[in-house]
């Protein structure tokens, strides 16, 4: 066994994985019942699932679906090269926007591992790290999430997974957190751990809020924004090579200079109702989308 296996703590029970034949039978019964009731479209088997269909699975949160026009999930996952047979690690999934699509998409032939942090090494486990609401959604949908695995990654758990085991590692709007001193993290140590975890030629996909290239980068990223060139240099220092950039997440209305940083904008609205219409019109933050390949 590797010295650094994916951690599956006792608090993270995994559902018994049914056979593909039983899954097909179950989904067929669900499809027939749903069609008769007229409640939802017939589910799609994972082996035939496209990224477009992954955005339309029945268990997605309506609030997340409403954000698709700003986040462009199909185009972004396609840009990163995620396929139904990929072994994917999603680092710090937050509320689960991407997980809700990745889990069913990878269910039959791929693998999804959620890497979560337990602040200060506290032992509360999966529900604490993911948030009770998100963890409850995972538990309530074993057909979609029963094969999801977990790893601890952060302050007290710096080794992400066994070396050379992941095709793709993804992290969305998290890099700015890793360089903030309040998180008590070593960003280079984290990036090197991701490098070790990836297979030769494996892909690291990063999305984050794009800062103003004409201004110096705050080394603590307190506003939640990162200059794109700063982020590229940071990641390449850890042994990656930039192989692609995308303007999927571009928003030219975002000036990146708000009273409470990026959290002033939707979906957070840090100022509450103050100037809410103004910030709603701006929309979600301008974001860079970067694709790196493991080298060395």
Structure description:
Helix content is 32%, strand content 17%. The chain contains 13 helices and 7 strands. The chain has a 7-stranded mixed β-sheet, with helices on both faces. The radius of gyration is 19 Å and the shape is globular. Mean pLDDT is 84; it is low at 1-46.
Blueprint (SSEs and pairs):
Blueprint: H1 20-37, H2 51-54, H3 62-65, H4 68-71, H5 73-80, E1 87-91, H6 99-106, E2 111-116, H7 126-130, H8 132-140, H9 142-145, E3 149-152, E4 166-172, H10 175-178, H11 187-197, E5 198-209, H12 228-236, E6 240-246, H13 276-282, E7 287-294
Parallel strand pairs: 1-2, 1-4, 2-3, 4-5
Antiparallel strand pairs: 5-7, 6-7
Strand content: 15-25%
First-to-last CA distance: 24 Å
Low-confidence stretches: 1-46
H/E series? HHHHHEHEHHHEEHHEHEHE
Enumerate the strands of the largest sheet in spatial order, edge to edge or round the barrel. 3-2-1-4-5-7-6
Question: Which secondary-structure class do the elements indicate?
Answer: alpha/beta
Please state the average pLDDT score.
84
* Shape call: globular
**Tally of helical runs:** 13
Strand segment count: 7
Bin the helical content: 25-40%
Biggest sheet overview:
7 strands, mixed
């Amino acid at each position: 066994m590797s010295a650094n296996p994916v951690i599956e703590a006792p608090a993270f029970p995994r559902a018994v994985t049914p056979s593909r034949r039983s899954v097909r039978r179950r989904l067929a019964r669900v499809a027939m019942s749903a069609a008769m009731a007229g409640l939802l479209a017939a589910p799609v088997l994972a082996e035939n699932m496209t990224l477009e269909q992954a955005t339309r699975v029945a268990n997605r949160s309506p609030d997340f679906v409403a954000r698709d026009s700003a986040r462009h999930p199909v185009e972004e996952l396609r840009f990163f090269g995620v396929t139904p047979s990929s072994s994917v690690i999603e680092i710090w999934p937050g509320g689960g926007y991407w997980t809700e699509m990745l889990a069913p998409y990878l269910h039959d032939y791929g693998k999804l591992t959620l890497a979560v942090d337990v602040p200060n090494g506290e032992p509360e486990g999966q529900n604490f790290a993911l948030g009770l609401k998100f963890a409850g959604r995972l538990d309530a949908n074993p057909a979609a999430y029963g094969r999801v695995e977990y790893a601890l990654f952060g302050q007290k758990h710096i080794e992400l997974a066994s070396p050379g085991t992941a095709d793709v590692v993804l992290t969305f709007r998290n890099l700015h957190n890793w360089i903030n001193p309040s998180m008590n993290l070593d960003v280079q140590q984290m990036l090197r751990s991701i490098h070790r975890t990836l297979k030769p030629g494996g892909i690291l996909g990063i999305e984050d809020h794009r800062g103003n290239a004409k201004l110096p980068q705050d080394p603590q990223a307190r506003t939640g924004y990162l200059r794109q060139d700063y982020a590229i240099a940071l990641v390449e220092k850890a042994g990656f090579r930039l192989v692609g950039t995308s303007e999927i997440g571009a928003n030219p209305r975002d000036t990146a200079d708000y009273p409470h940083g990026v959290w002033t904008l939707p979906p957070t609205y840090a100022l509450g109702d103050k100037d809410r219409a103004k910030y709603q019109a701006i929309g979600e933050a301008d974001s860079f989308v970067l694709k790196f390949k493991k080298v060395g």
